[in-house]
Amino acid sequence: MNNPFTLSFGQMPLQYISRIAQTNQIIDNFKAEHPSTPIYMITGVRGSGKTVMMTSIANEIKKNDNWIVIELNPLRDMLQSLAAKLYSIPQLHDLFLKAKLDFSAFGLGVSIENASPVTDIEDVLSHMLEHINRCGKRLLITVDEAVNSDNIKIFASSFQIFVRDNLPIYLLMTGLYENIYELQNDKSLTFLYRAPKITLEPLNYTAIRKNYMDIFNISADDAEKMTILTKGYPFAFQVLGYLYWEYRNDKSIDDILPEYDQYLQEYVYEKIWSELSSHDRDVLTVISSCDSDRVKDIREKLGMNSQQFSVYRDRLKRKGVINTQEYGRISVALPRFAEFVQIQSL
Fold it and tell me: Which of 179, 199, 219 is the last residue of a domain?
């Protein structure tokens, strides 16, 4: 049997712990007769499973004959790309031809006799969506790693128009904490501010422990030790499982820790660290090395008042590197990231 774990980002692993409640929330809403929202945004730190969750939802939606699912690249002209992808679907292509819709101005098909060509890309998509609606179908658009770019802004503004016109279009986007935050707070995209945001928290510890026990046939104590080492971080769950599978007959859990650290550092932590400001790094270094996790003690060590510290705390929280769930306390959210930070500050 091949290694059931993967080190590749975005790839649907064989061993995948689903986020059942959040996944069902999105699917059930989209499939409802009268959905409460046509858009969801999935956010989390690098390696938290955003792409995998989006793919899982898209695959489930695809099972329904009355749904069309299309993924768009946020680095390209998304409206043009959407029109081209819709036109390339054989069933829809025939439908558009029968309706004598002339989209030749955008390189879609050929000009149609006695039909005026549609010359605005929003109008093209409106006509397409109207005919999709008449067929009793719905369209789900997925966008991975959204950022506050011109492509996203233009697409989101058009999407809002389609929704206001009661067209059957739905949107599922993923993005890092800071990118989604910036996108939602853009003054030209106020409707996104109200869009439901699914923040991916750590995986269920019980599910991780059971998975390790079943795959490796190990004791509950060993599985618990591995689970704690992951802190519920999906990428860490994959890395630790991958390494233990490779070395299970030769090395103990402790023996593979140096390689475990190396994978986390090279694949994720070095990138996260590089994106932090120098002041963010200083604050995170104190949090990682402080003997106490109390906010008051950390602030005193930094020489900051409450207002000054809250700026850095909120920013590091949006980056997904600290945990502030317990009132008055702060801890490092990612597994063995505190050790990595301390090494960087030497």
Answer: 199
Are 165 and 228 part of one and the same domain? no
Beta partners for residue 171, in sequence order: 39, 141
At 79 the three-state DSSP class reads helix
pLDDT of residue 93: 81
Exposed e or buried b for every residue in 194-206, given b needs 16+ CB within 10 A? ebebbebebbbee
Q: Read out DSSP for 35-65?
A: -S-SEEEEE-STTSSHHHHHHHHHHHHHTST
- Residue matched to tokens 């390189």: 107
Q: Which two tokens stand for residue 191?
A: 């409707």
Pairwise CA distance, residues 231 & 333, whole Å: 8
- Furthest-apart CA pair in the chain: how many Å? 78
Distance CA(283)–CA(58), nearest Å, equals 39
Amino acid code (one letter) for 161: I
Instruction: Answer for the pair 130, 95: CB distance below 8 angstroms, yes or no.
Output: no
CATH code for position 318: 1.10.10
Q: Tell me how far apart the alpha carbons of residues 269 and 276 are, in angstroms, rounded to a whole number.
A: 11
Question: Distance between CA atoms of 83 and 103, rounded to whole angstroms?
Answer: 9
Encode pLDDT of 197-239 as tens digits. Answer: 999 999 999 999 999 999 999 999 999 999 999 999 999 999 9
242 & 292 share domain: no
Residues 158 and 76 in one domain: yes
Q: Nearest 5°: CA angle at 46, between 44 and 48?
A: 55
11/302 Cα distance (integer angstroms) = 41
- The answer to whether 56 and 250 have CB atoms below 8 angstroms apart is no
pTM, to two decimals: 0.90
Residues 176/46, Cβ–Cβ less than 8 Å: yes
